[in-house]
Specification:
- The protein contains three helices and ten strands.
- With about 170 residues, it is mainly beta.
- It has one domain.
- Strands 1, 2, 3, 4, 5, 6, 7, 8, 9 and 10 form a ten-stranded antiparallel β-sheet that branches.
Length: about 170
């Protein structure tokens, strides 16, 4: 492994409350960041139909972070936090980051290190990364792309894709 090669780390917190989730977004993901979430079972509003699937949006402060529903992601250049709702008060969290957590950070939210990836690569922008772009911007030749990194183990049998940012590109 070269000196410039990034490593990736995966942590899990199986029992976290909403305050812990928000704290991790603020402290480890950083603000501003990007987020999306969805309600399929929890907090569903049937008359809203597909609006229960919330699109990627910029989060400038924690008051705009929507954690209602079944699952969500918050991501930035620093890290990505994924959550899945377990019950009315509890979330299961996965943190993907290129910076290992310090022992006091691990203890703060009860994280368990799950995996260390020897290789992290920036994924190429392409059609797989293309996101819904507002009609007005599409008419101007602008497209939104989801930038990401790939975490791979040495055998190639375990791979995670970590989101980093939403980019606007002129085509």
């Amino acid at each position: 492994m070269s000196a410039a090669q990034e490593q990736g780390y995966l942590y899990r917190c199986a029992q976290a409350d909403a305050a812990t989730l928000r704290s991790l977004v603020q402290d480890l993901i950083g603000l501003p960041c990007w987020s999306f979430s969805a309600a399929i079972l929890w907090d569903v509003e049937p008359d809203k139909k597909s609006a229960n699937l919330r699109p990627i949006s910029k989060v400038s402060d924690l008051t705009t972070l929507d954690i209602r529903g079944d699952f969500g992601h918050a991501f930035s250049q620093q890290a990505e936090l994924r959550w899945k709702r377990r019950d009315a008060q509890t979330y299961d969290l996965l943190l993907l980051t290129e910076a290992p957590l310090l022992p006091n950070q691990v203890g703060l939210f009860g994280a368990q290190p799950l995996w260390e990836f020897p290789e992290v690569r920036r994924a190429a922008l392409g059609s797989a990364n293309l996101q819904d772009t507002p009609r007005e911007e599409r008419a101007q030749g602008i497209r939104y792309y989801l930038d990401r990194k790939e975490y791979r183990d040495q055998q190639g049998s375990v791979r995670f894709v970590r989101y980093t940012t939403l980019q606007k590109k002129q085509e």
